[in-house]
Every structure is written in structure tokens, then in C-alpha cells.
Amino acid sequence: MEPSKVPAPFLKPYNPTEQEPQMLELWEKSGYANPDVCVEKGVTKPDAEAYSIVLPPPNVTGTLHMGHAAMLAIEDILIRYHRMRGYKTLWLPGTDSAAIATQSKVETDIYKAEKKTRHDLGREELLRRIGEFTEESKATIINQTKKMGSSLDWSRYAYTMDEKRYAAVMEAFVRMYEAGLIYRGDRIVNWDPKLQTTVSDDEIERVEETTPFYYFQYGPFVIGTVRPETKFGDKYLVVHPDDARYKEYTHGQKIDLEWINGPITATVIKDEAANMEVGSGAMTITPAHSGIDFEIATRHGLDIERVIDDRGILLPIAGEFAGQHIKKARPLIVEKLKNKGLLVKIDEKYTNNLATNGRGGGVIEPQIKRQWFIAVNKEIAFPDGKKMTLKERMREAVDSKQTEIMPERFDKVYRHWIDNLRDWCISRQIWFGHRIPAWFKGDEVKVSITSPGEGWTQDEDTLDTWFSSGLWTFSTLGWPEETADLKTYHPTAVLETGYDILFFWVARMILMSTFLRGEVPFKKVYLHGLVRDGQGRKMSKSLGNIIDPLTMVEKYGADAARLSLIIGASMGNDVKLSEDRVRGYKHFANKIWNIARFVLENQHDSGAAPSTLQSKVDGRLIEADKVLIVEAQKVAEEVSADIDKFRLDLAADAIYHFVWDRFAAEIIEQSKEILKGDDKRASASRSRALHEILLISLKLLHPFMPFVTEAVWQQLPKKDLPAGRQGVDLLMVAPWPTGGQTG
RNA sequence: GCGCGCUUAGCUCAGUUGGUUAGAGCAUCUCAUUUACACUGAGAGGGUCGGGGGUUCGAAUCCCUCAGCGCGCACCA
Hints:
Blueprint: H1 16-30, H2 35-40, E1 50-54, H3 66-84, E2 88-92, E3 94-95, H4 99-114, H5 118-121, H6 123-147, E4 158-159, H7 163-178, E5 182-192, E6 197-199, E7 204-218, E8 221-225, E9 236-239, E10 254-259, E11 262-270, E12 282-284, H8 291-300, H9 326-339, E13 343-357, E14 365-374, E15 380-381, E16 387-388, H10 390-399, E17 404-406, H11 409-420, E18 424-425, E19 427-428, E20 438-441, E21 444-447, E22 457-458, E23 462-463, H12 465-469, H13 472-475, H14 484-489, E24 492-498, H15 502-517, E25 522-528, E26 531-532, H16 549-556, H17 558-566, E27 575-576, H18 579-601, H19 623-644, H20 648-676, H21 680-701, H22 706-715
The chain binds one RNA strand of 77 nucleotides through strand 8, strand 12, strand 13, helix 11 and strand 27.
């Protein structure tokens, strides 16, 4: 064959850096990521079944990491596959404001540069600065997302703080309040003294610390504690009713004893919350700073006195220690008790799980606060007429298989979480976020989106960021308006995300969607693992083992980066990634390129390419070649079945082996003889067969490696563009080898 | 304390209702070839499938048990 028949770009090795931007431009110009355009151009039938995924929105102020890259690769594979199969396919992009994280980052930056706190700036100015910051940084994450080849419909882009989403959040709050699901109450909450806000139970991260465990003489009792600084107000001694050691004491009995700041009168309380196994079995309680103690106190109508203020400073009840920070006061208090002869012993090696704010905050101090809560155990009426509690509804969603969690083992984790779920504290004392639509005038409270009138002031607090995230599958589709998008694409087909946010997000979307829409937010939940380094360690700055997805894209191409995150990553398990693996898949991209080059160089009749339509085998092919095509179609079926089962790793592996070991190494090698041979019919037939196998391979590979396959496709002289289709001929919308929607 | 997961070649992992001689990639070694592609091809070595016990004609796969690693939740006076 004359070399001139081979298009110019094929004369060089595959160069992702050169090809990728061109492919991105082609895709973007085509508009095919938008399902409306696909229908308009005849790519998708107007009545085709919908397939939708809402992208878990990355933090606006963040940069793309390997976890994002894995998520984008998985979702893009599902999306491209379904688009090629003819579904009305929507992948909806967005970004998240990440309220606490963003505000604390901006506050820190401002303090470093100007030595000013948010109170120096005021609410309005701080929000303006945060707005500037998010505006600047959002371009970064959006650009990086595009570079991975993600075929997202940017015309539907949503941001958690944009006008429409803000309105949806307000609407949701009001509806839930009116249904009696949202209430305001004084309860023990997790208070972060550093960020000066409450945080939810799920946001708490336990950090193991070794700390002394002190035993003190408390009248006739010995009590144990790791927190002597809370003990000033302790005037109740709690033992288990069945504890034989204390049976001589009766419930309510008064005992005079010497304590930290002098003589006090303690009251004996018998309550089953006391654990006979721990320490001496006797404890004193601090109801204002402990959830369990608060419950005990409430149960018996005991006094509740605050000991520690919002910043962690001891209150006047601490006597001579008042005004000191709890951390500094602790050893001094122990010293004083020791001097008074009340220190019995110290167990130095006690392992304590310290509660901290997982979002970069401080050590949690339980405090009693008036906050907004969502009642999870209250029976209410759902839009579809069902009467049950939120907890029950969240269980029902998975029991009934309306939502299926994959891998299955996370189903149990989800149920376990629901069992332990308590009312969700949704108010936060930060400024950046959706402001609570509640208004106060004296003792009166009104909930409404706009001010009820003269003299009413709005609640200063904002909502937990997961409140708005919970609405995400439908707020992005136009809710509360009953839009066409909402009707077509909700419930979404799949929610694909990391297993680490199963509780934060997945469970809350189910909660919100079932209540506000009476339907589940997604039919399936697919949870992927964490991306770790080659040795299985978490990637972190301090270890210096971070593999940056964009560096990998620059060095080896986006296709290689994507494939390295898919092959070998079985469902729900962590992925171990090393640069060597990425490099290996770059070789594969080049292999594809060269296969195409060989096939094109050996086209006998470039004017009449084979039909290549699924299950129809070209009549001009000789028997041996028909067998080859059937074999390729079998691979297509296998790949499709694997994708349908969410076994993307197996699908990618199957097509990888077919293309390299079978197509390149065997079929093409054998073909060299045939093509050079004297049997014209055999040689023409083989030439057509190779072309057809190439087309099938490109299609099967495209969801996994969109760039190199599209680049090759664009060089092919003639493809199987279906009749009636307008616009650019892109592999992105070429028909899938096993056929349309119903398979 | 309750629950979940993992343990298969030097490394990373497949092996979905039990069924020939347990597979792949990377790495290692040997050979070939200037080729569609050296970002290549052919081949080799490498495994008592974590230990023990059981069910079965048959177990990497099912059951019991032990060990190591990892994770979640709860407790935390």
C-alpha cells in the first residue's frame, strides 16, 4: 500500500498531549454531552429511556485529586456506554461550597495577611471575600475535571450556593418545618470551641490519645475520670441500681463531702446508665458537658450547671480556677486534689478516643445549645401518603430495593448507621452557607423565606452543608419547580461516590428525597474505594506520596490515567496506584494507535468499508473471517455484561486482552501473510474483517479510553454513520456494538 | 464491646451459584526482530490459595476455629 493512504498523524507515535485538547474541543463543539442536543441531531430517539448521574460536586476551592479522577473515570464510563447504547443520557456537573471548610480557609488566610478576624470584617465583608475566593478557584477544578475527558453537560452546571439551589434549600426548610420535622430545641450538641460552631455527630472524628486516668475520693466513693476540669459542678453520684457494692446507699440520699473548692452536699442517684464494669462503678456527672450525663439529669430532674464556656474557659463555678482554659487548668486541679488528699491513684496509660471536628476544627466540647434539629423518630406523612418516621423510610428505601447499594456489604453499614441515628442538628454558627429562614421578634419565632415584617430579625445561623447536599439530585434538576428535567431524570440511575461519604451524603439524600419528593433519589448506589499509593498508604502531603492526576495526564495521557484507576479496582475496594501502572497503559494507547495504522495501511477497498452493524456480518467475508467477527462480537457482549454489573474492572480487562493479545498479537500477525498472499478474495475479505474488528474494538474501548479511540475514529475514512443523523460524526455517539437500549 | 472487610506468584490483584493442569499486569530471566508498534514479539521461572479442622466424589470457593492486617460504629465516669 502506498504510505500516502495513511493519514498524516498516524505516521508518528500516539501523542496524547497533542491529540487530547483537539478531542476535547470536538466533543465540546458537538454538544453531545447535552441529551437535548442528541435528540435534536437524531443521535438519541426522543422517547428513549433516560439514564442520569449527578456528579458528586467537588469542593469549589479544591483541586482535583486521584479520588476525584477515579470517580470521574467510573462515571464517564457508565455515561459514555449508555449514551452509545441510545439512552437519553445526562451527567450533571456541579460544585459544592463546603461551608465550614471554605470559611475557615478564607478566615485563616485573612488572619495571616491582615491580622483580622471575621468579627473585625463583619458578616457582609467576609461573605464578599469568600465569594471572591470561590469565584477564582472554581475555574481550577472545572478545568481539571474537563481534562480527564468527562463528558458532563456543562449547560446544566449547578453550584450549591447559586440562586436556584439557594431557593430550593429555603423551600425544603420551610416544608420540613411545616411538617413538624424541623424543630428548635435546647439539647446537648457537639460544640467546636475553635471554629465556634456546632457540628453534626457524623462529622466527629475520634482521635486516639493516651492520657492519665485519675481516681478521686468523693466522700465514701472513688470516682474515675479523664477530665478533672469538668468536676466542679458534680454534685450527683450515680451508681447502678444492681451494684452490690453500693446497696447500702439509697436513691436520693444526701452525703456531705469535701470536694475541690470546699465542702459540698452530693446526692446519690441510681441509674442503669452507670456501668458496673468501669472503674469503681461509681461516677459523678456533668450534665452540661456530656450527652449521657445530660440524659441522666433530664431523667431524674437534676440541676444542670454550665462549667465551661464557648471558648473552653472555666466559669465562676470553678472558683479560683475561673477564667482559665480547661487545658491549662487540668494539671492544677489534679495538684490541688492531691494536696487535699483526695487523689487516690493515677492510671497513666489510659487510651481515650478524643472527639475532634473532622473538618479541620478543634476538640469537641459538648454544650447545651438552642439549635435547629431534624426529628428522625417522629411519625409524619410523606407526599406519597405513607405515614412513618424518617428512619423507617430510610430503611424502607433499601428494604424495598428501590435503592440498591453496591457492593452489598455497605447495605449493612447503612442500616447500622440508621439504627444509631439521633436527631440531626442542622444549624451552624458560621456565616458562609444557606441562612436559616427563621425570624425572631422577642420570644416569637416564624419560619418563612422572606421577612414576616417590621421588627423581625433573621436567625444568624446557617445550615449544615449536608442539608443542601441532601437535595442535590433534585435541586440540580430544577426542584421545587416540576421541570421537564425533573420528570425525565429523577430518580437518577446511579449515585457513584466514595464509601467514606455514605452517611454524610448518600443517607441524607435518601432522607430528603423520600420526604420532599416521595421517591428515592437514585436506583443504585455504587461505592468506590479510596485511591492509595503503591504500598497501600493513604496519599498525603506529609508522606510525600501524592500522585497528582494532572501530572499523570501530562506525562502519560488521560486515557492511561483513567485505565490505571479502573483495571484492578474491584467494587468497593481501595485501589493501589503507582506511576508504573499509568505508564503501562500509555503503551496500550499507543498500541491502539498502531493497530489502526496497520489496518488502514492494509485497506484494499477504502471506498467500501464494511457495514459493521451489530450482528450483521458482511456477506463478502469468507468463513474464517466471519468467525473472527463473531469472536469480537462475543467480546462486546462480555464487556457489556460486565459494565451492566458494574464490574468495570473486568470489562476493561476483557477488552484490553482482546485488543492486545488477540487482535494485535494473533489476528494481525496472521493477517500479514494473507494480505500479502495471492488469494485476492481471502486478502480482500481479511482486509474488511480487520477494519470491522477495529471498529468494534474502538467502540468497546471508547468509554474507557475516549481520547485515543476518538482520535483514531476521526482518521478513519468511512464509518457507519446511521442514516438520518446530523452533525459531526463522533465515536462518542456511535452505536454500541451490541445494540441499543434494550440490549 | 458490636459489626464489616482483607490474607492467592517478588509486588498489585482477578478467580460471582463448589467442577479439567489456579490466572493477569508489573517486575525478573532467555531468545527473536528494525517491525503497524522497542511504547515490539515469543518463551521461562515463580504458588502446600494465612494456619488448623470439617462438609463433599471434588474446596481458593461452603462451614467452624485460630492468627495477622485494615475499617466502621458504640463506649469512654
